[in-house]
Amino acid sequence: MTAPMASRTELTRKILFEAAQVLAEHPEGIPVSELWPLINARLPEVAEQWKHGGVDSNTPEIALRFKSGGLVKSGWVIKSHGRWYLTALGRIALNKHPGVPSFIAASHAGYQYWDQHKTGFETAKRLVEAVPEGSWVAARDLATQAGLDETRLVALLQGERPEGWHRILDADGGVPDAAHADEELRTKWQRLLEDEGLHVVLGRVPPARQILGADLQQIVIDDPDGGEGPERPRRAWLVRGSNVRGESLIGDWLADRYCSLPASKLRELPAGSSQDVIRAVVDEDYAHGSYNDKLKKTAEFYAFLTRMRDGDLALSNDGGKIYVGHLRGEPAFRASVGNRANLQRPVTWLNADAPLDFGDLPDEMSAKLATQHDVLDLTEFVDDLERLIGPGSARAREFALPDVTAELAVELLVDQEWLQECVELLRDRPQLILYGPPGTGKTYIAQHLAQHLSMGKRENVKLVQFHPAYSYEDFFEGFRPVQTPDGQGVMFKPLPGPLLRLVDAARQRPEEPFVLIIDEINRGNLAKIFGELYFLLEYRKKAIDLLYSSADETGTPFTLPENLVILGTMNTADRSIALVDAAMRRRFAFVELHPEETPTRDVLRRWLVRHEFSDEAARLLDELNARIEDRDFKIGPSYLMRPGIYQDPKGFARVWRTQILPLLEEHHYGDGIGVAERYGLETLRRRLS
C-alpha cells in the first residue's frame, strides 16, 4: 500500500530539521548555497514529492530560506555574510527535540514570541548597539527596559548577533546562563570583552563598568568615560529648539545668538556642577516628575552646564534646515517668555543666512538626529560638520532611486527581479500604476515600495485616495475659508493640498526621493484633478503657469521636482483601466498584479509556508479563480492572508462567506447564476477531494 503523499508544509519541516542536523556537523558554518545540496542528498525523496505538492514556482530551497526565520528568532541559527551556523542553543534544541514535530513546534514558539514582541526586540537591539565599548549591561535590566522575557531576549541576541551583543551579561558580569554557551563560545565571548578593556576574572567582569537598567535610555547622551580635561578635543552638540512647549525658538536663537533649555523649575546652578549635585537638585526641584523624566533632565542639564565648553560646536534644526555655530562663554540663567528658555548659552551662529540641508548630513548623523533627545552628543561628527560649514562646503547631490533588496522581496513575498523592474520603470519615468483585481496587494506593495524608495523616511511619503468628488483644489491648491486676523469674520485664502506640500518638501531636499501614493486613482475625474499638471507629468523639466498664483508669489512658473515619484493603484473589477484616457496612459507605466500571473500567483503559497499553514487555502483559491470566467474579476490572495482566520476554526469559512462571495454576488447580479452553489466553500472542497 502506497504511503500518503506528504504536504509541502510537512516537507518544509523535514527540511528545516535536516538543515539543523547538517549545520551541527559543520561548526565552521556552511555557505547557504551549499546547504540545500547537502540536505537534498540526505532527503532525495523531498524534491520529487515537492513537485506533486503544488504548481507554483516555489522550490524546497526557497522554502528553506523563507522558513528558517524561526530558527534565527529562537537563537538556534546565525546567518552571517551568506554563511549559516548552528549556535550552542541550536545544538541543545536538537538534543532536546530529536524529532521533527517537537523541534519545529519549539522553533515556532520562538518565532511566535518574537512576532508578538517585535517592538520590544527592536528597542532592545537599539539599546544593545548603543552600549559603549568597555561597558556592559545585565540581560535582566535590558529585558526589563524592553518589556521582554530575559531567556527569549538572550536567545534572540544569539541568533541575530547585533553590534555589541557580547556586552550583555548576567547580573554578576558573566556569560548569561540562558545562552548555554559551550567552551568555544564562552572563550570567544570573553575574548571580545578583554579586547575592549574589560578584564575577566574567574569568568566575571568588574561591576564598576556596568550600566544599570535605569541608565540605559541615557547612554546616548551620557559620557561613560567622564573625560572632561582642559585639553580635551572640541565636541559637537545638538540642542533642539524647533518645538519647545509647542513653539519654535530657532528664530530667537539666531537673532539673539544663543541656544537654551527650558529649565523652568531648576534653581540656579554654577557652570561645571557635578553630575551628583545636578541629580540631587533635579530630584528636589522636579519631585513630581517620573523617575525616567528626572534621569533625562539630569543628563541634559549636566551636558548643558558642565560638559559643553567654550568653542564647542552647537547644532540645531528647523525642519530640514540645519544651523551650526560655536558656543561662546558660560551658561547663564535668564528670565524668558513662558519659561521656555531659562538656561542659555551664547552661540555665534555660522550659517544663520544659509542653513545646511538635512540631506547634506552623513547618514549616521541623520539617524542620530531622528531620536527624541533634546540634547545629544555629536562629537563623532565634528570633522563632518567643520567640513560642511567651511569654505566651499556646499555639496550637490544627485537624486537616485535605490535598488530593491532581497530583504524587501522576502518581506513582500515576491521575486526581487519583479520589484527591481518596477524601480527601473520609475527611473525611466517617475510615474507608475499598479493595477489588478481586488485583493492582489496593490496598495500594500505600493506603500512598502514607497518606504524603501524614500529610504525609510516616513515624512517623505504621502498617501491620498481619489474619489468622484475629489478636485484640483483638494489635491493641489485651492481657496479655502479661514478666519480673519481680528477673529470677526471669514476670508478666502489659497491653501496647499497634499501634492503641493510634498513638492515644497522635495524642493528643499532635492537629493532625497519623495513618493506620493494615489490609491484608487481611477475613481477620480483625472482631467479635473490634475488640470494643467498633466503636462508636467510628461515634461518634468518644463514649467507652467498655475491656476492659482500662491504656489510662487514671485510669479515664477511652476515645475514638478524630479525627485517626486508618483505611485498609483487601480482596481480593474470596475473596468476602470479602460476608462483611463490616452494622455494618462502615456504618462504612467502600468504594471499588472493578477492572481494568475507573476508575482501574485505565488504570494499566498509563500505566505502559508512562512506561517506553517496548510496549502488548502491556495488550492481553494486556484479552484475558485478557475471557475470565474471574467479575468478582471478573479480574486486576489490578500483576503486569505491573515493568521487569525486560520487560528479560529470558523474564521476561514467566515471570510469566504462575508468577503469573497459578496464580490461575486455583485458580479453576477441579474444573470441567474447561483453564486453559493458555484463558488461556495463546500462546493470547492468537494471538487478538490
TrEMBL record:
SUPFAM superfamilies: P-loop containing nucleoside triphosphate hydrolases (SSF52540). Pfam families: AAA_5 (PF07728). InterPro entries: AAA+_ATPase, ATPase_dyneun-rel_AAA, Methyl-DNA_Rec/Restrict_Enz, P-loop_NTPase. Residues 428-598 form the AAA+ ATPase domain. It comes from Streptosporangium subroseum. GO terms for molecular function: ATP binding; ATP hydrolysis activity. This is 5-methylcytosine-specific restriction enzyme B.
